[in-house]
Amino acid sequence: MNEIIEAMKQRRSIRRFRPELPMKEDLEQIIEAGLYAANGMGRQGTITVAVTDKKIRDKLAAANCAVGGWQEGFDPFYGAPAILIVLADKNSANRAYDGSLVMGNMMLAAHTLGLGSIWINRARQEFEQDEWKDWLKSLGVEGEWEGVGHCAVGYIDGEVPKPVPRRSGRVYWAE
Known about the structure:
Layout: H1 3-10, H2 24-35, E1 46-51, H3 54-68, E2 82-89, H4 95-112, E3 116-120, H5 123-126, H6 130-138, E4 145-154
Antiparallel strand pairs: 1-2, 2-4, 3-4
């Protein structure tokens, strides 16, 4: 079978990560894969913010936890030490779709590099908050951005989950 299709079939969301940070070169490759995602009209209207600073990562986790309504101290990133935040241009009608494709490419790239990943929601709500908008500005990010998702990345702690059987009745042909 084609190696890309095989990787798609094998990739799983990981919910337990080791604390050590992946190599920067691997994170750069993952981000680059996201940059090559298909996008509406070739506009490339997404950005990725890579968070590897533990203090910022933990502050982001606390904000995500608050938005999600969990008890203080819960880690919605499951211990992943690197968080790749995908944001999309608020003026783009395709922002959610384009950002979703970026996320998919990055999760698949992480898998092929032997890393685990998981898509964590609530980026939209976080980046509606002034604190996080100001943080983006402090990084030099200009414009109006909508959070699409967090790609939590790290070394897998434990076994990779087994795939669940695919439900039947999900494909229709018009031949």
